[in-house]
Automatic annotation (TrEMBL), chain B:
Gene3D superfamilies reported in the protein's UniProt record: P-loop containing nucleotide triphosphate hydrolases (3.40.50.300)
Top-level taxon: Bacteria
Species lineage: Bacteria, Bacillati, Actinomycetota, Actinomycetes, Kitasatosporales
SUPFAM superfamilies per UniProt: P-loop containing nucleoside triphosphate hydrolases
Family statement drawn from the similarity comment of this UniProt entry: Belongs to the ABC transporter superfamily. Drug exporter-1 (DrugE1) (TC 3.A.1.105) family.
Domain ABC transporter: 5-231
Predominant location: membrane
PROSITE patterns for the chain: ABC_TRANSPORTER_1 (PS00211), ABC_TRANSPORTER_2 (PS50893)
CDD domains per UniProt: ABC_DR_subfamily_A
GO function terms (MF aspect): ABC-type xenobiotic transporter activity; ATP binding; ATP hydrolysis activity
Protein name: ABC-type xenobiotic transporter
Protein's organism: Streptomyces coryli
């Protein structure tokens, strides 16, 4: 038993060193997805609360004392050149222009973005109404007490973290496994291991151990980056359920890698086939953008990919407050997928390159 | 004591090709035995059947008194194998390679380092496999095959592609291995190598053993000048694939 454990340990070490010393592998499995996270996270950071850019010409009394809540939605620039300001609105550089003309408050805005046009009107309208009430000297009859509910539409980072993490784990599982299998067959390490007095157990266990270790390392790094204050990922209650989910997912991707590696004759072929599988899978699984708007058939097709289920379930436990009910069926499905594809790989497995 | 190798009636067919077509061999303990033959003669397939890598369609192969098929871990501990392509783990240094193989056989790192010293690679211990020269890679691969102190060693074309210096060096190493009491079986298509090293050789062609015997006796028997002449007389002069 201890001989098997020793063999497991040394094989796992050999595989880990081989992986870490392969700069291209480290780049594609770790740095590349992380770059996407850093980039997407920064690009879409403020996309949920677009500010309204308002140009104020001269004095507008209603706007003298603005409540501070409006700072989040309203960005006011003061100017004296009304023609220039109107031109800016026409060009789309500014959203609206406001000026006072006696008792009239004039507002000009563009209809190019209807959502923005709507919010310009309602914001300015509410400010003016409040000013009117204040001008009567009476306390307002009604007060609105606003509060938020847990929102179905989330901050971008809440969505990108599970999506891109899933993609990274898929690359690690599929590429790492497929290339190693082809390489070991080509270099006859498989044969050499056959001639060593160890069973298949330590070899398989070492491969699984390294794949899981890589996936969990990817997860730790992703979460560490995403929870930086700059990106501001907020993990919900049962976020730790993402750990077993990622483990099951990486086994499913490993099984894809086994099929690719068993089929492909060269590393180039394995690389190409893995790319053909992973990239479309990532797009159709919502790794890069949400699939809510996608046509029904796309959503149906994406259902066959383990990545889609991994991303959905991870997003649920990580960002949406989901629990066991969301995670457990997906874990079962991923393991079943892994079992079926491993059986397929065993069927087409070859010892020799010839 | 049983023979180191006792093979009878080995046959292996790939489609229409009879790679091995009725091979019988007996190799005594402590013998240095060479399998000679042109490319495609069936040397490597014969070796792989003997090692237990492939199952013969017909026939039996016994190593040290135990059948090599099905796979038998107890027997595998007693044999050392160097495959034709050097089976190294990617991106690992010479020392890491031999330590990995050593641990597969339950051998400690001290013994692995000593083996590296034996083949003269201590200075190259920190060099990655792809940075080793052909001769260094072959020596490392032989060291990996010997790390668990096997009684019987198989070497498949160990000197192919080496320069004369590296080849002579390796010969010394192989003689040393044999003089320590190990049985050594190698394939080669260098006749001078076989003449120099082997106690007995088997000349193969088209999947059969044409002649077996000590090199000098074969030369005398066929009335020619060298083992090369024996080889050419037995296997003909036409080109091989």
């Amino acid at each position: 038993m201890s001989a098997s454990r020793k063999a497991f340990g040394s094989l796992a070490k050999a595989m880990t060193l081989g992986l870490l010393r392969d700069r291209a592998a480290v780049f594609f499995m770790l740095a590349f997805p992380l770059m996407f996270l850093a980039l997407f996270g920064a690009l879409f950071k403020n996309s949920e609360t677009p500010k309204v850019n308002l140009v104020q010409i001269g004095q507008v009394q209603a706007f003298d004392k603005l409540p501070s809540e409006l700072d989040d939605v309203l960005d006011i620039t003061k100017s004296t050149d009304r023609d220039q300001a109107l031109e800016d609105v026409r060009n789309g550089d500014q959203d609206a222009v406001i000026w006072q003309h006696g008792k009239e408050i004039e507002l000009r805005f563009s209809q190019a973005d209807p959502a923005k046009a709507g919010s310009v009107q309602s914001i300015v309208n509410s400010v003016v109404q409040q000013a009117n009430i204040a001008a009567t000297g009476k306390p307002p009859a009604y007060r609105l007490a606003p509060g938020t509910v847990e929102d179905k539409s989330m901050k971008a980072i809440q969505f990108f973290t599970p999506g891109l993490l899933g993609w990274a784990i898929a690359m690690g599982g599929v590429f790492g496994t497929a290339i190693t299998l082809v390489n070991w067959r080509k270099k006859r390490i498989l044969r050499r291991l056959w001639l060593a007095p160890i069973g298949p157990g330590p070899v398989i266990a070492a491969r699984i151990g390294v794949t899981l270790g890589l996936a969990l390392a990817q997860m730790a790094i992703f979460l560490a980056v995403a929870t930086l204050p700059f990106y501001g990922l907020e993990m919900t209650g049962s976020w730790w359920l993402a750990v077993p989910l990622v483990a099951c997912g990486s086994l499913a991707f490993m099984s894809i890698g086994l099929v690719v590696g068993a089929w492909a004759k060269s590393e180039e072929a394995a690389n190409g086939l893995a790319q053909i599988i992973v990239l479309p899978m990532a797009f159709l699984s919502g790794s890069f953008f949400p699939l809510d708007q996608a046509p029904g058939w796309v959503q149906a097709v994406s259902g066959v990919f383990p990545l889609k289920h991994l991303v959905t379930a991870t997003e649920s436990v990580l960002s949406r407050g989901g629990g066991w009910g969301d995670a457990l069926p997906v874990m079962g499905g991923l393991l079943l997928f892994a079992a079926v594809l491993t059986a397929v790989a065993a069927k087409i497995f070859r010892w020799d390159a010839a | 004591m049983t023979a180191a190798i006792k093979a009878e009636g080995l046959r292996k067919r790939y489609g229409d090709v009879r790679a091995v077509d009725g091979v019988g061999l007996t190799v005594g303990r402590g013998e240095f035995f060479g399998i000679l033959g042109p490319n495609g003669a069936g040397k490597t397939t014969t070796l792989e059947i003997l090692e237990g890598l492939r199952r013969p369609d017909e026939g039996t192969a016994e190593l040290l008194g135990q059948s090599s098929w099905p796979r038998n871990p107890d027997l595998l501990k007693r044999i050392g194998v160097q495959l034709q392509a050097s089976a190294f783990f990617e991106k690992l240094t010479a020392r890491e390679q031999i330590h990995t193989f050593a641990s597969l056989y339950g051998v400690g790192p001290e013994r692995a380092d000593a083996m590296l010293e034996t083949v003269g690679l201590t200075e190259k211990a920190g060099t990655r496999e792809d940075q080793l020269s052909g001769g260094q890679a072959q020596r490392l691969s032989i060291a990996c095959a010997l790390v668990h102190d096997p009684e019987l060693v198989f070497l498949d074309e160990p000197t192919t592609g080496l320069d004369p210096q590296a080849r002579r060096n390796l010969w010394d190493l192989l003689r040393q291995i044999n003089s320590e009491g190990r049985t050594v079986v190698l394939t080669t298509h260098y006749m001078d190598e076989a003449e120099e090293l082997c106690d007995r050789v088997a000349v193969m062609d088209a999947g059969r053993v044409l002649r077996t015997g000590p090199p000098r006796e074969l030369v005398a028997e066929l009335g020619v000048d060298s083992l090369e002449d024996v080889f050419l007389q037995l296997t003909g002069r036409e080109y091989r694939e």
